[in-house]
């Protein structure tokens, strides 16, 4: 899930629609609401965020520090006008990248992935390879042993999220937040079990074993070593 912060609701809803076409869930905030949320949200919720996209808003240079106090997800600032001074101020404030509109969401996703690779959360320019599985974050289907492995959007996003967080055990709430968005109250967390059950069956058929380990009350992790 990507969190978008902008003082214009039309902008946050626009990003939501654009990212949805790529299979990415977003949650939009007005600046004042985001400032309160990032300081008080449960750790499991903020750890489900894959990146923060900070648009036009007052005092946005304060947000990177607040985010870094809670998590290490990439922070990208979006400028609508070209200003070297403003860009340097944003980097000084701690953002990982500054982009200028208009920009396709796939380029934003590519920049997010590049930042994650620098943090050690990915490998190479052609996706993340773990064992026999390679996943992408630009909407493409994953690969298993070099062959395309077609998955529905939700199952694909769950596989990407499990691999991005390999080595960590993720509970249903974290997976739900990453796939559906923190404030999507119309879908129950139990739907995660259904998606994972279908994903496990397909992976078992393809790999000959089930790579997703689950423990009651603790959650899920993927083992591809």
From TrEMBL:
A GO term from the CC aspect: protein-DNA complex
Record GO terms (molecular function): phosphorelay response regulator activity; transcription cis-regulatory region binding
Listed Gene3D superfamilies: 6.10.250.690, Winged helix-like DNA-binding domain superfamily/Winged helix DNA-binding domain
Occurrences of domain OmpR/PhoB-type (ranges): 125-224
An individual GO BP term: regulation of DNA-templated transcription
Keyword ATP-binding in record: no
Pfam hit, one: Trans_reg_C
DNA bind region: 125-224
Domain called Response regulatory: residue spans: 1-116
InterPro entries: CheY-like_superfamily, OmpR/PhoB-type_DNA-bd, Sig_transdc_resp-reg_C-effctor, Sig_transdc_resp-reg_receiver, WalR-like, WH-like_DNA-bd_sf
SMART domains reported in the protein's UniProt record: Trans_reg_C
CDD domains reported for this sequence: trans_reg_C (cd00383)
Keyword vocabulary terms for this entry: DNA-binding, Transcription, Transcription regulation
Designated name of the protein: DNA-binding response OmpR family regulator
Species of the source: Phyllobacterium myrsinacearum
Organism placement in taxonomy: Bacteria, Pseudomonadati, Pseudomonadota, Alphaproteobacteria, Hyphomicrobiales
């Amino acid at each position: 899930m990507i969190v978008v912060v902008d003082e214009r609701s039309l902008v946050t809803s626009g990003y939501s629609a654009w990212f949805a076409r790529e299979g990415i869930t977003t949650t939009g905030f007005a600046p004042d609401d985001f400032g309160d949320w990032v300081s008080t949200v449960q750790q499991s919720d903020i750890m489900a965020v894959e990146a923060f996209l900070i648009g036009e808003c007052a005092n946005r240079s304060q947000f990177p520090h607040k985010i870094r106090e809670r998590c290490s997800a990439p922070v990208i600032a979006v400028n609508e006008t070209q200003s070297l001074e403003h860009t340097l101020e944003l980097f000084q404030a701690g953002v990982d990248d500054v982009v200028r509109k208009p920009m396709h969401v796939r380029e934003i996703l590519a920049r997010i992935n590049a930042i994650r690779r620098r943090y050690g959360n990915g490998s190479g320019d052609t996706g993340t390879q773990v064992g026999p599985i390679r996943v992408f974050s630009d909407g493409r289907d994953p690969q298993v042993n070099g062959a395309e492995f077609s998955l529905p959007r939700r199952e694909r996003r769950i596989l990407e999220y499990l691999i991005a967080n390999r080595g960590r055990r993720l509970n249903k709430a974290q997976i739900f937040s990453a796939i559906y968005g923190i404030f999507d109250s119309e879908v129950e967390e139990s739907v995660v079990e259904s998606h994972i059950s279908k994903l496990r069956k397909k992976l078992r058929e393809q790999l000959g074993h089930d790579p997703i380990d689950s423990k009651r009350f603790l959650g899920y992790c993927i083992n591809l070593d």
